[in-house]
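User: These chains co-purify. Model them together.
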Amino acid sequence: MAKPALILVGADKGGVGKTTVARTLLDYFTAHHVPTRAFDSESPRGTLKRFHGDAADVVDATSVADQMRIIDTLSTTDASVTVVDVRAGLLSPTLRSLRDIGFLDAVKKGQITFVIFHILGSSIASLNEIEETAPFTADAKYFLVKNFINNTSFFEWDQATHASYFKKLKDAVVLTIPKLNEMAYEQVELASVPFLTFVANKNPKGDTANYSFVLRGYVRHWLGNVWAEYDRVKLLDIIDTGGAAVTGQRAQTANRS
Amino acid sequence: MPQQTPLYIIAAQHPRVGKTLIARLLIEYLRFGGNRPLLACDLDPREPTLATYFPDLVSTVDITDTRGQMALFDRLIADNWRTTVIDLGYGLSEQFFDVMAEIGFEREARRRSIEPIVLFITDSAPITARGYAKLLQRLPQTTFVPVHNEAASFMFIPQDFPPSRPECGVIRIPRLSPIVRGLIDRPGFSFGGYMANQPGGPTEVHTWIGAIFREFRELELKLLIGTLESSLRGVARQTASRAP
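Assistant: Joint model of the two components:
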């Protein structure tokens, strides 16, 4: 039995691109044939659910019943990986809950793989979240995700400020999500399909669609770059896929589809 | 083997080296040679000179924004049955080839039997040779044919501008005497029309146009022969691998 993996994608600040990153992760695992399930805590609507209807369920992360639905089933589900798109403002409370129920102890004992994708915006408020999150990340694989949804610089022009946030946690790894062409992003929004499906020019029913070749090209190129980051940090090696992952299949999968 | 539809892209590193002139000559050659379906695009929305010569044929497209890029590349993919000529406006080469590489146009073009052929107008500046070498590296499935326009650049160093397919060689555009140069730049002047009408026997302009049309015809033949040879080599390899 493969060791279950829980991936939290979250931030306390809103509008930093949490769901976008969660979507790229689901596409990445799909392309590598890793059985994955997802929970969308944007209750009751669920943005992730709109794109990955088959894989994602909407949950209320603050309710005990839904916490049980996610955590208690980690070792019994067929999915090797559980991705949770944590609603804005709920990252720190969710981490606290995980500590309180003993989940972090199980991680420490090596029973569960725990990965956190902390999505950052270019504001001091967003960067201050790193400090709040730090107490819960000791035994997790903790990724600080710079999401370049706009032409932001994450204070790289001021090395002291930049270092004070990004070099404080020695085990944190910084990931960079490049900017996607705005029109391409909007077209995928309209299409309401996973990025991979859009690249393959398919509609939600799986029929051939009529998406712009240029916009598909931009999405393919961008997704390839995002996956190259996941390859760089050896994400597939971090999670135990129980041999399900197609090894050697790299970010270029997106280009082949 | 499906027939390849050529997509000619007229490019240069510097302005005023004869891009639009070569685009005009090529369009008229393609029209002169028969009724093949044609499409032409002028990518200089500020000064669409090519469009003024062929208002019924040329679309002006601004590729500096995504909408314009969609208008161009989506159409090229959809109209894969039409021979296309693109006149890249000055300063747009880099952006055009960036987009082409980023959206994976080469691969899709090959899937749709479109053959991109860049007619690259050379000059003697070292930066031009460097830019040409980078393009060759960046777009390995595109055919690059150097064009030496003698009116724009006296020198041509073959080592600086190797054609991506050696059989294609270099297209040479001879210098035209300044006296008659004004004639071909007149609005509404047609190279094909001029060639069809020779009441007093051939003139310098006839000879000049004829030489350039011959260069284009030879290029087409070389491309065709190259494609056939490569296809035959593929068949021979397949046959050899099946042999007991």
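The two ends of chain A are 31 Å apart (CA to CA).
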